[in-house]
Design brief:
It is a single chain. By secondary structure, this protein is α/β, with parallel strands linked by helices. 43% of the residues lie in helices and 15% in strands. The chain has helices spanning 20-33, 58-68, 85-98, 113-118, 126-144, 180-189, 200-216, 236-247, 256-264, 274-277, 292-305, 317-329, and strands at 37-40, 73-78, 103-107, 149-152, 157-161, 173-175, 192-195, 223-232, 288-290, 309-313. The strands form 2 sheets. Strands 1, 2, 3, 6, 7, 8, 9 and 10 form an 8-stranded parallel β-sheet that branches. Strands 4-5 form a two-stranded antiparallel ribbon. Helix 5 (126-144) runs parallel beside helix 6 (180-189). The radius of gyration is 20 Å and the shape is globular. The chain starts with 19 loop residues before the first helix and ends with a helix.
């Protein structure tokens, strides 16, 4: 869901404003044309278009979309240092009730120090962020049980707290990360591992690693998701022309400083290239670019690598989702 008004850092206006009217239109249409899940990102500032650009609030948007949709899963990002676990457990349980059991969480251990400081919130060092997240998950899931729940941790505590009504189902927990701390936490406490875009062989290697960690943790198998930016055109030349357009950097855009901070706050397994700056979430790495036939084959390659879920970005979103539905999705039905 383009809560930041788009995905492209070199293109100022993508024709997809950061407004509730736009995302409502997208969510309702997504169900009509066959999409199964909507990811709603959470940042209080806009890391793509620049901090002065608008960005929608994730959780009030999710509550509204829960009432307006019927089928799609609503995966909403949440940062533990921005939400006390007790009140959050209550709010999220209520949203899951509104959605009739369609809520899931994308648990993100915050990376943007400047944003946290601007809003007067604590910002932990890297591994400490995952220690906070681990306790936060314990408290939220304990409260979701609907039974009185007490907890005494290093960061959080509760005393016979209770969330009633509880969620229709326990919302699944999706999380990503490439550090040892992130992978260990996900293997032990989450339901799905989500990755930024990459080549199928790299993705297959990451999936194998996380599957092995999951066995060691003696938990049921994880599911696996990956983000990717899609360009579908009738010819390779047309697809290449669109790629060239979004890669062209005429000036240093407003979002570049935020991208720089993200790099400083993460532990990546390989160095990012400037090409990857142009599209958020390393969206160009999967190379979901080309004719409908080429994109379908690429998707099949990722399915073969073990990917269960593709979190796809398009620009402009409404029109390109329609194109993808007609030329790629419906062809395979």
């Amino acid at each position: 869901m383009p809560v930041f008004g788009g995905w492209l850092r070199n293109v100022e206006d993508e024709g997809m404003e950061a407004s509730f009217d736009y995302v409502k239109r997208l969510a309702i249409n997504a169900e009509r044309i066959g999409f199964d899940l909507t990811l709603i990102a959470e940042l209080y500032l806009n890391d793509i278009k620049g901090v002065d650009a608008p960005a929608l609030d994730a959780w009030s948007t999710a509550a509204a979309l829960a009432a307006l949709t019927e089928r799609q899963e609503l995966m909403v990002a949440v940062r533990p240092n921005f939400h006390q676990p007790g009140p959050f457990a209550k709010t999220s349980a209520n949203i899951d009730r509104i959605a009739n059991g369609r809520l899931s969480l994308n648990v993100v251990s915050s990376w943007w120090a400047r944003e946290a400081e601007m809003f007067g919130l604590d910002f932990d060092q890297h591994d400490d962020r995952y220690a906070r997240t681990s306790e936060w998950i314990d408290v939220v899931e304990g409260l979701w049980s609907g039974e009185p729940f007490s907890y005494d941790g290093d960061i959080y505590s509760t005393n016979e707290a209770r969330v009633v009504p509880s969620p229709v189902r326990k919302p699944p927990l999706y999380a990503g990360g490439e550090s040892e701390a992130a992978k260990s936490l996900i293997a032990e406490k989450c339901d799905a591992y989500v990755m930024h875009g990459d080549d199928p062989d790299v993705v297959a290697s990451k999936i194998a690693d996380m599957a092995e960690r999951r066995v060691t943790a003696e938990r049921e198998p994880l599911s696996f998701g990956m983000a990717g930016f899609v360009i579908v055109r009738d010819s390779e030349a047309e697809a290449q022309a669109e790629l060239d357009r979004i890669l062209e950097m005429k000036d240093v855009p407003p979002g570049y400083d935020n991208f720089d901070q993200w790099l400083a706050g993460t532990e990546l397994e390989r160095e990012l290239k400037i090409r990857e700056y142009a599209v958020s979430n390393r969206g160009l790495r999967p190379n979901l670019i080309g004719t409908p036939e080429q994109v379908r084959q690429r998707i099949a390659d990722f399915e073969g690598a073990g990917v269960d879920l593709l979190l796809l970005q398009f620009s402009p979103q409404f029109e390109e989702m329609e194109r993808f539905s007609v030329q790629v999705m419906r062809h395979t039905e």
